[in-house]
UniProtKB/TrEMBL annotation:
One of its GO terms (cellular component) is cytoplasm. It holds the Pfam family Pyridoxal_deC. Coiled coil: none annotated. InterPro entries: Aromatic_deC, PyrdxlP-dep_de-COase, PyrdxlP-dep_Trfase, PyrdxlP-dep_Trfase_major, PyrdxlP-dep_Trfase_small. This is Aromatic-L-amino-acid decarboxylase. Its cofactor is pyridoxal 5'-phosphate. Belongs to the group II decarboxylase family. The keyword Lyase applies. Keywords: Decarboxylase, Lyase, Pyridoxal phosphate. It comes from the Bacteria. It comes from Ruegeria halocynthiae.
Length: 469
């Protein structure tokens, strides 16, 4: 393909994109393909000769699209949304057009400096204090890994990277039983070992870790010759929105000199609204905080905001700086690849700039507030239905329920059949989780274009399908 043929196809794809987003609400949310359908439709061998874009695009529509679950569907209430607002799609188009590799300041000064400014905009939007500096990571998993490596290096007096962990006493990291699996993987990858990730039991409606149990666990470890190293807090956990008592846990961590990382991958976006900040009191005492603008803020995947009270600890942990990477002659510049595990970096700040400017913080806040209010209204309606039990209350726009009609026996099986039937129906998409061993159904609203009617349709679908099974 020659570049002078590009604009023709670029326009076609822009038209296709607009039509897709305007009509996606009419499609079933979850893909209806069977395993192997797409694999079998793709030739086993690559073509020897080039093919026409017309043919490739036709196959894209015929083979790929039927196998897509529509994450941008207004009634996608499963998992957490991964929103791609229109300005973020445009910004990604431009970023892919110029395709810079932004590992160092000099490999694209604009990308680096815009990243600095955008992270400062986000810091201000979340009302985090001046001292915090930010970096855009590819995912919350990567940010958590970087934070765990930093905890490890600090606790080992910066010897872990050179000597490994072999002769060191076990490092201990504490978190609640509700944290995301990315925490476990970071612990594995950092060489700390699952056995040294200590789960603190949760309590109360917020399902947050019990601070007394946290302190007791640290004490036991100190007495037993382990080395307490860090605490990972959860604000808006994936299953039920579990949220630790941030101020009390951070206070205990500080008392014992432990590094702290707060995983607010989903709920962090909501902190642009002052009225939700009571969910993380004392957050300014954390060492590291992560949230994903690629979830609730409309900045499409991937874009993860990682804030650090002292970025030097992170850079000391991750920077290698061989000679060929040195940016000579420019003092005071930032090479963000020293702040993350991957070296190569996409130009992710551009879509933040487009999205924040297009909607303004007030436009973004309004969307988030709507999602929370509509979700709570739906919760109230389902709570009033005799055969349904609310299992966990709304945390922002996330809550869980269970269908428990009189006389039903195997409730886990019944609820699994219900969620499957709802998803086969196609009008909405929900996922399930477990709470204290019980299978429950999650509801979460956060799609950028969802409306009150979309959210209320979930009531009709859930109650209608429950009656039918
Ligand atoms: C989504 C999520 C993650 C993982 O985010 P990635 O960016 O996909 O790595 C981690 N923690 C929580 C609480 C999440 O909701």
């Amino acid at each position: 393909m020659k570049w002078d043929e590009f604009s023709d196809w670029g326009k076609k794809i822009a038209d296709w994109t607009q039509d897709y987003h305007l009509s996606v609400g009419k499609k079933p949310v979850r893909a209806r393909t069977e395993p192997g359908d797409v694999l079998n439709a793709l030739p086993a061998h690559p073509p020897e000769q080039g093919e026409a874009i017309e043919d490739i695009f036709r196959d894209f529509e015929q083979i790929v699209m039927p196998g897509i679950t529509h994450w941008q569907h207004p009634r996608f209430f499963a998992y957490f949304n991964s929103n791609a607002s229109a300005p973020s799609v445009l910004a990604e188009f431009l970023a892919s057009a110029i395709a810079p590799q932004c590992m160092l300041w000099q490999t694209s000064p604009a990308a680096t400096e815009m990243e600095t400014r955008m992270m400062d905009w986000l810091r201000t939007a979340l009302d985090l204090p001046d001292g915090f500096a930010g970096v855009i990571q590819d995912s919350a998993s990567s940010a958590t890994l970087a934070a765990v490596l930093t905890m490890r290096e600090k606790a080992m007096n910066w010897q872990g990277n050179s000597q490994g962990l072999f002769s060191h006493k076990p490092l201990r990291i504490y978190c609640s039983s509700e944290v995301h699996t990315s925490i476990d993987r970071a612990i594995w990858v950092a060489g700390i070992g699952q056995d040294n990730l200590i789960r603190i039991p949760v309590q109360g409606d917020w399902r947050g870790m019990n601070p007394e149990s946290l302190e007791a666990a640290i004490q036991v470890d100190l007495d037993s010759g382990y080395q307490p190293t860090g605490v990972i807090l959860c604000v808006g956990g994936t299953g039920t929105g579990a949220t630790d008592p941030v101020d009390r846990c951070l206070e205990i961590a500080r008392k014992y000199g432990l590094y702290t990382h707060v995983d607010a991958a989903w709920a962090g976006s909501a902190m642009i609204c002052p009225e939700y900040r009571h969910y993380w009191p004392g957050i300014d005492q954390a060492d590291s905080i992560v949230f994903n603008p690629h979830k609730w803020l409309g900045v499409q995947f991937d874009c993860c905001a990682h804030f650090l009270k002292d970025p030097d600890d992170l850079v000391r942990t991750l920077a290698i700086s061989p000679e060929y990477l040195k940016t000579h002659g420019k003092d005071g510049i930032i090479n963000y690849s020293e702040w993350s595990v991957p070296l190569g970096r996409r130009f992710r700040a551009l879509k933040l700039w487009f999205v924040i400017r297009t909607y303004g913080l007030e436009g973004l806040r309004q969307r988030l507030r709507n999602h929370v209010n509509w979700s709570v209204a739906l919760h109230d309606r389902l709570a009033a239905e005799p055969d349904f039990r609310i299992v966990t209350p709304p945390m922002w726009s996330l809550w869980t329920f269970r269908y428990e009609p009189d006389g039903a026996v195997d409730l886990d099986d019944l609820n699994l059949r219900l969620v499957n039937a709802i998803n086969d129906d196609g009008r909405i998409y929900l996922t399930q989780t477990r709470v204290d061993g019980d299978l429950v159904i999650r509801f979460q609203a956060g799609q950028f274009e969802t409306t009150e009617q979309d959210v209320m349709m979930a009531y009709d679908v859930i109650t209608e399908i429950a009656r039918g099974i």
